[in-house]
């Protein structure tokens, strides 16, 4: 089966924008005090999407020849274009996406790009546009090389990646609740808004869970699935909040933090941890540094008070 995913996604652009408009209207009418949309946040998301799309156009020019190299020299099978090959490609890429996504939450180098998608404290359709132009530098494309070895042409690899990401637009919403009744089976097979809300939450019970792209079966199979609890509403954002709507800061803040940590820590093991340990290592390191700085400031303040009291005790009292 041959298809042009870029044209398909371009044709879907009005649908994406219509969904954002409908959701903003619907949430403002049904949850007026929640402020689930913000102009500054939405514009930041749009700017990040445009930056990422421009970077991807250039990156694919370099990456497609790499896939072609593995496809031409190392493929173990040649798939004929058919619905069967499309299904196999779809399932294989979705499994590899799960591996990429889970790694992006466990390896700081990959997290430095992926954190952009999680740094908003809002969850709505526009959040799906919140992507990083640094994915090619982080190495996202490396995860799809097995598809070329497995015998899928480079352009089909690019197409299925784009289709997978296009589907994920529709799970970034609070306007759709958990599926139940006759649709309840969807929660056992596909990624849904309820499942993905958990993934974007920073609550202790939700953090680093539900990595699904399209199929949630991988989360259930590999033990990373957690159900949304109506008594524990998701709190969105990242552990170390960003507090800016500047798309450039959103893109590069973690890279800058990672570089600073690499320089400041002692020993090569810690320097490697600064680059490749789970993001939790960095959060703990920053907390220790902040606690140390607070302790030093408190000690310094105490020393000044002792010195002032000591000086005052030996001052000559003024005559009345």
From TrEMBL:
<feature type="transmembrane region" description="Helical">
    <location>
        <begin position="6"/>
        <end position="25"/>
    </location>
</feature>
<keyword id="KW-0443">Lipid metabolism</keyword>
<feature type="domain" description="Fatty acid hydroxylase">
    <location>
        <begin position="86"/>
        <end position="224"/>
    </location>
</feature>
<keyword id="KW-0812">Transmembrane</keyword>
<feature type="transmembrane region" description="Helical">
    <location>
        <begin position="157"/>
        <end position="176"/>
    </location>
</feature>
<feature type="transmembrane region" description="Helical">
    <location>
        <begin position="46"/>
        <end position="70"/>
    </location>
</feature>
<dbReference type="Pfam" id="PF04116">
    <property type="entry name" value="FA_hydroxylase"/>
</dbReference>
<dbReference type="InterPro" id="IPR051689">
    <property type="entry name" value="Sterol_desaturase/TMEM195"/>
</dbReference>
<feature type="transmembrane region" description="Helical">
    <location>
        <begin position="132"/>
        <end position="151"/>
    </location>
</feature>
<feature type="transmembrane region" description="Helical">
    <location>
        <begin position="82"/>
        <end position="100"/>
    </location>
</feature>
<protein>
    <recommendedName>
        <fullName>Fatty acid hydroxylase domain-containing protein</fullName>
    </recommendedName>
</protein>
<feature type="region of interest" description="Disordered">
    <location>
        <begin position="296"/>
        <end position="320"/>
    </location>
</feature>
<keyword id="KW-1133">Transmembrane helix</keyword>
<keyword id="KW-0472">Membrane</keyword>
<dbReference type="InterPro" id="IPR006694">
    <property type="entry name" value="Fatty_acid_hydroxylase"/>
</dbReference>
<keyword id="KW-0560">Oxidoreductase</keyword>
């Amino acid at each position: 089966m041959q298809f042009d995913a870029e044209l398909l996604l371009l044709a879907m652009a009005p649908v994406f924008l219509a969904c954002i408009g409908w959701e903003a209207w619907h949430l403002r009418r049904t949850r007026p005090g929640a402020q689930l949309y913000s102009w500054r946040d939405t514009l930041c998301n749009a700017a990040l999407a445009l930056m990422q799309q421009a970077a991807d156009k250039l990156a694919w020019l370099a990456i497609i020849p790499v896939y072609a190299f593995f496809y031409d020299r190392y493929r173990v099978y040649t798939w004929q274009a058919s619905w069967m090959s499309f299904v196999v490609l779809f399932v294989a890429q979705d499994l590899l996406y799960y591996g990429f996504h889970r790694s992006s939450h466990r390896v700081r180098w990959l997290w430095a790009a992926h954190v952009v998608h999680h740094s908003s404290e809002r969850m709505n359709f526009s959040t799906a546009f919140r992507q990083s132009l640094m994915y090619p530098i982080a190495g996202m494309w490396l995860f799809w090389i097995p598809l070329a070895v497995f015998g899928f042409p480079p352009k089909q690899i690019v197409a299925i990646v784009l289709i997978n990401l296009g589907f994920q637009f529709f799970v970034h919403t609070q306007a759709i609740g958990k599926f139940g009744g006759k649709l309840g089976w969807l929660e056992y097979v596909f990624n849904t808004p309820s499942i993905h809300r958990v993934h974007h939450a920073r609550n202790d019970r939700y953090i680093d869970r539900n990595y699904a792209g399209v199929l949630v079966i991988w989360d259930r199979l590999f033990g990373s699935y957690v159900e949304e609890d109506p008594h524990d509403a998701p709190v969105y954002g990242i552990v170390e909040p960003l507090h800016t709507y500047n798309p450039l800061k959103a893109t590069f803040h973690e890279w800058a933090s990672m570089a600073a940590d690499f320089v400041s820590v002692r020993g090569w093991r810690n320097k490697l941890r600064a680059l490749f340990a789970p993001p939790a290592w960095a959060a703990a390191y920053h907390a220790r540094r902040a606690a140390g700085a607070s302790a030093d400031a408190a000690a310094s303040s105490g020393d000044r008070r002792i010195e002032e009291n000591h000086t005052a005790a030996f001052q000559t009292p003024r005559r009345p």
